[in-house]
C-alpha cells in the first residue's frame, strides 16, 4: 500500500480514497415507492454522488434509510488539535500501592448517573466491584472508597454527598443524549458546583458513550472518559492529579 497523505484523507470503501460512505437517517414521510427517491435526493443535497438506497423500513408514518454514496470531501488529519487525557495508566495493584506510599490515605470517589438518565451501565463499569470486561471497578481498590449513587441522581444530591464525604473526585455519567440532555445535565452539575464554591474542591470527571475529553473540557470538567475507558484510567488520572497538586513527582510505574 502506498503511503497515505495525512493532509488529505477520505473515506475508504471498495478501494483507497474512493470516498465511499454509508449513511443512516429517518425522513418524516411514508414508506412508499417515492420514499427512496426522497432519500437519494437528500443525500445528493449533502454533496454525495453515486447515491444508492440499500435499505428502507417503515416506522409508522416515517421511513428509516440506509444509504450509500461517495464524497469528494477530505480532512487534513495533521491540522487537527484534539486534547487528550494526559495520564499514565496503572493497574489496580499499582494504584493502591502509590496511593498508600505517596498519599497515605484512602481516596474518596463519589459517582452517579445524574439527572433523569436511568442507565447505570457506565457508572457501574467504572465503580462497581465486578467492573466490566475483566476490568474491576473502583470498589475493589484497597485504597479507594467508592460511593456509587446509581441512576437518576439529582446533581444537587451528588454534590451533597461529595461535600459530606470530603471527596477527592466526583464522577458523573451520562448515557442518554437525546436533545443534548447529557450536555444540559453535565452543565448543571458544574454550574451548581461553582455556585456552591465546590468547583475547586473536587476533581470533576464525566463519562459516557458520547463523552470525550474535548467535550468535558468544554463543559468545565477536569477530564472526560468515553468508550474503552475503565476504572484504571479514571483511578490513575485522579491519583496523578492529586500527586501533581501535592508537588510529588509521578512515579514511573507500569
Give start-end ranges of low-pLDDT stretches.
none
Computed structural class: alpha/beta
Q: Which of globular, elongated, flat, extended, rod-shaped describes the shape? A: elongated
- Helical segment count: 7
Secondary structure: number of strands: 8
Q: State the end-to-end distance.
A: 35 Å
What is the C-alpha radius of gyration, as a whole number of Å? 23 Å
Mean pLDDT: 94
Can you put this structure into words, describing what you see?
The protein has 254 residues and is of the alpha/beta class. It contains 7 helices and 8 strands. Strand 4 (107-113), helix 3 (121-127) and strand 5 form a beta-alpha-beta unit. Helix 2 packs parallel to helix 7 (231-245). The protein is elongated and about 70 Å long. It starts with 19 loop residues before the first strand and ends in a 9-residue tail after the last helix.
Keywords:
three-stranded antiparallel β-sheet, 254 residues, five-stranded parallel β-sheet, 8 strands, alpha/beta, elongated
Concise summary:
With 254 residues, the chain is an alpha/beta fold.
Blueprint of the fold:
Elements: E1 20-27, H1 35-45, E2 49-58, E3 63-70, H2 92-103, E4 107-113, H3 121-127, E5 144-148, H4 155-165, E6 169-173, H5 181-195, E7 203-207, H6 213-219, E8 223-225, H7 231-245
Parallel strand pairs: 4-5, 4-6, 6-7, 7-8
Antiparallel strand pairs: 1-3, 2-3
